[in-house]
Design brief:
ATP binding; aminoacyl-trna synthetase; alpha/beta; ATP-binding; Glutamyl-tRNA Synthetase, domain 2; 40% helix; Rossmann-like_a/b/a_fold; Rossmann fold; 493 residues; aa_tRNA-synth_I_cd-bd_sf
Length: 493
């Protein structure tokens, strides 16, 4: 099994708010394998997509593999349909995994609930080596410990009571069939580790935490054990995950050492935040990828805006596509400060990428098919002329409006409905503009027949008695679009 070696001559200074840290740039050697390992306790959101994207780009940059693993060990919180949806959304976004529950691979299964025997074996190995032990403390006792700690102003932690049980006591309790968990024995003296992004780190977890559970009473592993077991057996070379896991890495390295395994290289990505610096919360319903898809946001626009506000790239211009993101990506350019996301700019990103699609012949045909279905669904029986849903007509509309619209859905709004259905208006609306409507109509017909309408509409007003140019234009707008206000041009500017 090959792991990347660090380049000792490539030291990069990274300045954060509090200190200057030194980190080394890895020389990528051997097979690169990275993973995105979400929990299907919810649907994929923008923060998760960003983590998946950085892993995908890293893998493709260095000719490696991008693995999707679903960490579904918390059975009580699983959301029906979430597992399938996560993979659906990755494929829609253009970051498909090379190995996954759906695609399979040499290192499966890729669902943790189907790997329980592997975790049990690892836990038993830890128990037999003295690095883990059986814990029989009841939930009532643990709750009392927590309340007492809070009452005295301390951080709740397990008091490691069961690590002192004698072997005969453990055997007797097991023989009685008492409920139990397995806890990992935290030791002091944790060695510092070097993170690809945050540099040298050291968290002596034994000083602040009690021994963590690695196998729960239901036989399922906790995240702390399952993720290192899977990363080992799936031969993951680099772990790129959110910086919220940085403090847990020392704990995971203790487990690697206890199992006698070589750990992967760790890189913790700075968090994705709202533009005001607040946390991007799942309770914001609009951050789920399905919501963006439903609202007509293009996947490449999402990838562009999430990398544009972050770091790791040589440029931050708008309009970059996935091949450009891969070519411009450099791990050494990832900084430690949070990425501030301004979703108010998303329509502008979408406008640029929609224009790219319209200008691409194959992608434009796909847009046309999509728009054909949406037009028929939106206007149904109101369509009086089938020519408006023909390919050449819709293509002409797209070419004329490219660079002005931010999504196809805009073309289905009342502002653009005249493109698909015959405008309707009342005689009262016409009368409110001018009493010369019939006269003006006959003049316009004559001009269209002689193909001179586009030359100068101002001359038309000179042939009317009381109608000024402004009212004339309002009348034409009403007749052609059913609109009295010039929404079309105001949205285009």
């Amino acid at each position: 099994m090959l792991f990347p070696r660090r380049c000792s001559q490539c030291l990069i200074s990274v300045t954060n708010r509090h200190a200057v840290v030194q980190r080394s740039c890895s020389t990528i050697q051997g097979e690169v394998r990275v993973r995105f390992a979400p929990s299907p306790t919810g649907f994929l959101h923008l923060g998760g997509l960003r983590t998946a994207l950085y892993n995908y780009i890293f893998a493709k940059k260095y000719g490696g593999s991008f693995v999707l693993r679903l960490e579904d060990t918390d059975q009580s919180r699983l959301v029906p349909g979430a597992a399938e949806s996560i993979e659906d959304m990755l494929e829609w976004a253009g970051v498909p995994p090379d190995e996954s529950p759906r695609r399979g691979g040499l290192f499966g299964p890729y669902l943790q609930s189907r790997r329980l025997d592997i975790y049990t074996q690892a836990a038993q190995q830890l128990v037999e080596s003295g690095n883990a032990y059986y814990c029989f403390c009841s939930s009532q006792r643990l709750e009392l410990l927590k309340k007492e700690a809070l009452r005295s102003g301390q951080t709740p932690r397990y008091d490691n009571r069961c690590r002192h049980l004698q072997l005969i006591q453990v055997r007797n309790k097991l023989d009685q069939g008492l409920p139990h968990v397995i806890r990992f024995r935290l030791e002091t003296g944790v060695e510092p580790f070097q993170d690809m992004i945050f540099g040298w780190n050291h968290h002596d977890v034994a000083q602040v935490e009690g021994d963590p559970v690695v196998i729960k009473a239901d036989g399922y592993p906790t995240y702390h054990l399952a993720n290192i077991v899977d990363d080992h057996y799936m031969k993951i070379s680099h772990v790129l995950r959110g910086s919220e896991w940085l403090i847990s890495t020392s704990k995971h390295l203790l487990m690697y050492r206890a199992l006698g395994w070589e750990p992967p290289t760790f890189g913790h990505l700075p968090l994705l935040m709202n533009k005001d610096g607040s946390k991007l919360s799942k309770r914001q319903g609009d951050i789920f990828i399905q919501s963006f898809q439903r609202d007509g946001v293009l996947p490449e626009a999402l990838l562009d805006i999430t990398t544009n506000c972050g770091s790791g790239f040589s440029t931050h211009r708008m309009g970059r596509r996935i091949n450009e993101l891969i070519s411009e990506f450099s791990p050494s350019k990832i900084t430690t400060h949070s990425a501030l996301l301004d979703l108010e700019k998303l329509p502008e990103f979408n406008r640029i990428h929609l224009q790219h699609r319209i200008e691409n012949e194959e992608q434009c045909r796909s847009l046309i098919r999509d728009l054909q279905g949406q037009i028929q669904q939106t206007f149904t029986t109101d369509i009086q002329d089938d020519r408006v849903i023909q390919e050449h007509y819709i293509k002409r509309v797209l070419q004329l409006r490219k660079g002005h619209i931010s999504s196809l859905k805009e073309l289905l709004t009342p502002v653009y409905s005249y493109l698909w259905v015959r405008p309707s208006f009342s005689s009262q609306q016409v009368a409110a503009l001018t009493s010369e409507a019939q006269h003006i109509g006959s003049l316009v017909l004559k001009m269209t027949i002689t193909s001179v309408l586009q030359i100068n509409l101002k001359t038309l007003a000179k042939q009317t008695k009381i109608t000024k140019h402004r009212e004339l234009m309002k009348l034409l707008r009403l007749a052609l679009s059913g609109l009295q206000v010039l929404f079309l041009l105001t949205q285009s500017q």
